[in-house]
Every structure is written in structure tokens, then in C-alpha cells.
Specification:
The protein is α/β, with parallel strands linked by helices. A four-stranded mixed beta sheet has the order 3-4-2-12. A four-stranded mixed beta sheet has the order 9-8-20-19. Strand 5 and strand 6 form a beta hairpin. Helix 6 packs antiparallel against helix 18. The longest helix is centred in the middle third of the chain and has 22 residues.
Length: 493
Amino acid sequence: MKPRRRRRTRPIPSSPSPAHPRRRPKLRMLSQEDCRSIHHASCRILEKTGLRIFETEGLALLKEAGASVDGDRARIPAGLVEKALKTVPNGFALYGRGENSSALRLFGDDVYFGPGSDTLRYLDPRSGERRPFRLADLADCARVCDALPQIDFVMSMGVPQDTPAGRSYFPHQFAAILANTSKPIVMVCDTLEDLRAMADMAAAASGGRDALQHRPSVLLYSEPTSPLQHPTEATRKLLFCAERRIPITHSPAPMMGGTAPVTVAGAVALGNAEVLSSLVMHQLKQPGAPFLYGHGVHHLDMKTMVSVYGAPEFQLARLMASEMGRFYRLPVWGYGGHSDSKVVDSQAAADAQFSVMVALLAGTHLNHDVGYLESGLAHSPEYMVLTAEIIAMNRRFAAGVRLDPEALALEVIDSVGPGGEFLSTDHTMANWRDLWLPEIFDRQRLEPWESSGGRSAEDTLRERTLALMDGHRPEPLPVQAQEAVEAILDRAP
């Protein structure tokens, strides 16, 4: 396959040209021939092995388009993949609440970060205890996300245990987040009924369904089931998003050694096949609907039987996903700021640094799981604040350096000469702000650090987290929108 340039279905604002072009570090591994090899392997899986699809409309769409269907087993020819890749947009934008909000441009070189979804345990920075989530905790965490400039979108973070009994928690979870951030939201839900309610809330906050479609402020995260299965509810959500043109990432999570081959290449070929099969159904339902490419290939630790996040193999799979996304000219879903550690410690910091650096240098566009601990079972707002510092530091590194005459500074060097100093020059005054300054990490020498209290980074983290929770006030929902959200909640499943 040769990747094709396609006309986008909707105009997308372009990134502004920097005043001084920079030389930026990049992380690359696969050649075009390598990408073609993975693509052809995935197409062979789709054509020869096929997938089980448990939703009748998805099967009908495939059969009518020319796939071979035998019961719930569908085998998808490569031509349908080619057709879907021609109609899907090269990228799209996500917007915050309000007409003047800035856009997350999911195309080009822009890289964004946000938290993950639906953990079971909350590391409470107020008490220090590990406990189940409550709706108030979600509101606290959403305000932290809203306040941190390095966090670009918000996700559901935890499963609240205090929602109405006998009803789905997802709409209540979404409403709590919607009320406490004006940034774009990545939604997660169980059923199509959940999704309808949440899409209606998002539309109410955006000024109506047409406004939401024109300036999407939400994206749905959902998954097929590895290996090679499309469950009924997941497929219904996929097709609903296509019909409504709500952006979606339908991202499988093949687990090497468990639900995927134990080799990275085999797991990536499988995950890629699952993504492409999702894309085919999505584009058959609504050509030109926005779709975010990506998969979450993990591996099963053979000693602990844990699906691990802090692993070099996980990051290799992330890099391969990014390169396949570029090969298809699609925006890419990614990961960052997560750890298998149970607490915010040196292991968690090392994992965050590793994952954030890979995401930035590989160029995955929308990266979730900031704040994940315990292999995705716990969420820590303090870990989000730490990772935000790491994101800021690494964004400066990924921004690279200028090589223009002003940056090369030959005239300044000549005027200072041998034995001189540069501190008092106009050039230093004009350019020193390009150097990154930390907010959490301390650079003082020992004596002033001791005289100012000798505070550890952990002390600063907790203080900063609580200050954001207690002091930040996001832009409130308009009264009419809040009333509409409450009415939708009353009739939600």
C-alpha cells in the first residue's frame, strides 16, 4: 500500500508559523517498507482470519460493502480498508467550552496530554488515604486538570461509588466533570443509552447538536475486544459516533502473551487489524466522520500476571502506533504519565518521564492516563501535578533549538570577547525567558534551600495540588445549560 494524500472533509486551522524555525528532536524507528509490511500483515488477518462481530448493523454494513460474512464472522477485503482510508479525515480539532476557547489540533506535530479513565482507587491528597472514588473527588480532580496548563483535556479518572443506586454511573460522572472544566473531555461509557445522555449533555453545554458537531468538545474512547471481536455495545457506540460525527478513538488493548502474540510486532499487527476493522465500519456508516487512530498494546508480566505500563515494550508499541498513524495520515491516540507503582515515588517519576518523552518525540497527538498508578487501578492528583512538571520540562526539550543569526549570537560573542561576561548584555535580557524554569523541582543551593524550610518535592506537590483543588474556579456552565444537564440526568439510565 502507498499512503495517499486526501482532501480533508472539513477545513482545519493550521498551526501558526513560528517566528524562528527550530531544529526539533524526533524519534523514528520504522521505514515506509516496515509500515507497509505491518499493513499487509494486518490486512491478511482481516481477509484470512476475520473477526467476530456481534452487532447486526455492523455485519450488515460489511456484507453490503463486499465483506464475506458467515454467521457473526466477517472477513474484510483490503479494498474496504483502502476505501475507508480515503474517506476518513486526516485530522480534526477538539474545542473547549465557549466560542473563544483554543483548539487541540489533532494533526501535524502538536502533542497533548490528559488523565485516564475509571480507576477504582483514589489517592486522597487531603488525608493521604487510598479509598474508593466519590463524585466530589472527580470534581476536585477536574479542577486540577482545568488549572494546569500542561493538561489539555479531561477524562473520567475514577469510578464514583456514591451515584444513585441501580442506575449507570457514567452520566453522573460526566456531569461532574463537565461542571468543573471548560477543557475538551474524553468520554467513556458502557452502553449506547449512556452515550446518548452524555452526548445530549455535551450538546447542551455547547449550544446545541449542530454547534457540537461544528466545534466538537468531546471525544469517545471505546474498545473492541482482543483478539478480533467487536462486542454489541462497543459497535453500537462506534456507529452512533459516526452518525453524529462525534470524534471517536476505538482503541483495542491487545495484551502480549495473553490476548495477543507475545512479540511486539505480532501484537501491533493484531491491534492494527482491529483498528482498521473499526475504521471500515465507521466510515461505511458515515464517510468523512472524524476518527482517531490508535491501539494500547500492553504485555502480560509473566511473573506477576499484571498488564504493565512501565515497560520498554509498551513504549516501543506506542512508537509503532505513532508511525503507523503517520503512514495512514491519521491522528494518533497515545499514553503518558502512568506507572505500575502504587505510590508517587521514584518509580512513578521514572515511568512518567519515559512515557512523556516518548509521546513528545514520537508525536502521538492525544495522550491519556496522566495520574495513573497501580497499572491503571488507582488515580493520584498529586501524580498529575508531578507529571505536568515533567510534561513542561520535556515540551521545552522537544521544542528544540533555533539556528538563526540571533540564536547563533556571533555579534554578541564578538562584542564581549575573550574573558568577558554575557549576563549584562541586551541579548541575554531578550532571550533568557526561552530557558525553562520549574515550578515544583527545586534548584537552590543547600543553604538557601535549608533556610527556606528544606521542603521536599513531595511536600511541594501536595501543597500545590491542594491549592489548585481549593483555589481554582473553572468557568461555570451557563444556567440554561446546567438546567438542561440536570434534566438529562433525571431521565438517564
